[in-house]
Design goal:
Helix content: 40-55%
Largest sheet: 5 strands, parallel
CATH class of the largest domain: Alpha Beta
Shape: globular
Strand content: 15-25%
Distance between the termini: 25 Å
Order of helices and strands: EHEHEHEHEHEEEEHEHHEE
CATH superfamily of the largest domain: Response regulator
CATH topology of the largest domain: Rossmann fold
Number of domains: 2
Number of helices: 8
Oligomer: single chain
């Protein structure tokens, strides 16, 4: 089944570019240039994912996101915006967005993020895989090759988040918000500590390393 993406963007040039880019990569694409039109189309056509600009002429993108998640919670929402502050990203995630991409962005990054969100939303994916690593969401079991790996609940959630975003660099702020919900008594260095725990358990004793740090940015997991 071909994934259906709804592009909500009032800038005609960018809207047409996104439509062409996604069509070339085998997505079914429809477009809307206002929030009200987007909500009307969501109700009628049920997209798998929405690329949502925050600066719309009739209503805010945040308002659209909140309404979409209320009416169609299984629809993934990726916000597109020129706002790159941590506060803006946190607010977007609180409004229900599944991801947040700042302009300008590379087409490669955007496509990878869309793939990750669609993978994450697939109800069929009980077992997540990276190379010889398997995570079973139903049995809460993790294996690498023939080795059973015991994880704490926080380590398990962190690993699941990394795998759902395979090949995508996750910043410390993104991880902190998604796993620890920006709890006021949790410092950002807790991310480094828990990634260190995971590395020992996942990569320890294996020649091929799966978890990688991207200096100055964050972390990623790769095949």
């Amino acid at each position: 089944m071909v994934p259906y993406v709804l592009v909500v963007e009032d800038n005609k040039v960018l809207r047409n570019y996104l439509k062409s880019l996604l069509t070339e990569h085998d997505y079914a694409v429809k477009v809307a240039q206002s929030g009200s039109k987007a909500l009307e189309m969501v109700e009628k056509t049920k997209p798998n994912l929405i690329l949502l600009d925050l600066n719309l002429p009739d209503m805010t993108g945040e308002s659209v996101c909140i309404q979409v998640k209320k009416d169609s919670p299984d629809t993934a929402v990726v916000m597109l915006t020129a706002k790159d502050s941590v506060e803006s990203k946190i607010q977007g995630l609180k409004d229900g967005a599944d991801d947040y991409v700042t302009k300008p962005f590379s087409s490669e990054e955007l496509l990878e993020r869309i793939k990750a969100r669609l993978r994450n939303g697939s109800s069929e994916q009980t077992i997540l895989k990276v190379a010889d690593l398997e995570l079973n969401k139903k049995t809460i079991q993790v294996k690498r090759g023939k080795k059973d790996i015991k994880l704490t609940p926080q380590e398990f959630k962190l690993l699941e988040y990394l795998i759902n975003n395979k090949n995508i660099v996750l910043t410390r702020d993104m991880i902190l918000n998604r796993i620890w919900l920006y709890s006021p008594n949790v410092e950002s260095r807790v991310v480094d500590v828990y990634v260190g725990y995971l590395r020992k358990k996942i990569d320890g004793g294996f020649k091929k390393k799966l978890i990688h740090s991207i200096r100055g940015f964050g972390y990623t997991i790769k095949d």
